[in-house]
Amino acid sequence: MPTNSKPDKPPLGIALSTVDGRLAQNHLLIEQISKLQIPVVLVNQMRGKEGRLSLRSLNWSSDYAQIIHLNTLGLSLSRNAALDALRTPWVLLADDDITLDMEAFDLLVLHLQSLVAGDNVGAFVTRLMKDHNTPWRSGKLDLSVIQGRSIASLRRIQRINSMELVLNADALRKWGIQFDQRFGLGSPHTNGGEEVMILNEILRHSSQIVPIDLAPRMHAESSSGQVVNADTAFTQGAVHRLVFGGFQWLGLVLIYALKRLQSGGLPQTLNYVRGGIWASRQA
User: Fold this and answer.
1) What pTM does this model have?
2) CATH of domain 12-226
3) Which residues of 57-83 are buried (b: 16+ CB within 10 A; e: fewer)?
4) For 139, left (φ over 0), alpha (ψ -120 to 50), or beta?
5) Separation of alpha carbons 55 and 95, rounded Å
């Protein structure tokens, strides 16, 4: 099967986020996107005058690529700007430190082309790799469909990484759903959780989240959300409070405390509680 073919009407676009032009250091991803030539919106959030990017410097064409420069930070804000600019039915989320598996990406495009229109699938969850041979997380991907807002479903969406998501952008536009800008790296209060919040909204609209056994993205580094510290504890407490609700969150506080206090994690426990209290005031 030929790879990197360009479909007449691409079903998939790429929402690519970077800060201060850091994408310029990822030469492989830049080259891969130039070969794919499918719709891509790069959002470059800048804290100063340095790091401005251009299509010419990236060797991309305006036929398929667009760059948006923002002087505000926040990963959810970046993703929303890209989703607003893209007009493809499906959107693959990308950060500036990933690379693509070109064959898996082409297979994903073919899969999306074969779908019947509709919003019964709000998002696909792909596999994520560190490299071509090493899974990003231990254990096999659970290929069962996530639907409804049972405890089991809400627990599963907590474990999904944004670099595993392919979003039904048409459905999100119809429902008026965007990433919650209170969440995500660079937001004023939290350092993650944006993917959980949007998946929770998809479930609220009675749509399915469907795992798919393809790995179009590779991410060699650890995620910021994997590092256990005060910021991640605060974020997790806030996400749990808003997703599970107040009554169930009280039980989660007890579970979290039992796990953390055994290893001397009193500061993390306190910040988990603070995050939940902050979220209760936001709801």
Assistant:
1) 0.91
2) 3.90.550.10
3) ebebeeebbebeeeeebbbbbbbbbbb
4) left
5) 17
Q: Which regions of the chain carry the CATH code 3.90.550.10?
A: 12-226
Query: 123, 210 in Cβ contact below 8 A?
Result: yes
Q: Provide the token pair at 63.
A: 């036929």
Of all residues in the chain, what percent carry a pLDDT higher than 90? 71
For 194-251, give the DSSP string: HHHHHHHHHHHTT-EEEE-S---EE--SPPGGGS-SHHHHHHHHHHHHHHH-HHHHHH
Residue pLDDT, tens place only, 232-281: 899 999 999 999 998 888 888 888 888 777 666 788 888 989 999 999 99
How far is 54 from 56, CA to CA, in rounded Å?
5
Give dist(CA 182, CA 69) in Å, integer: 20
Distance from C-alpha of 95 to C-alpha of 108, rounded to nearest angstrom: 18
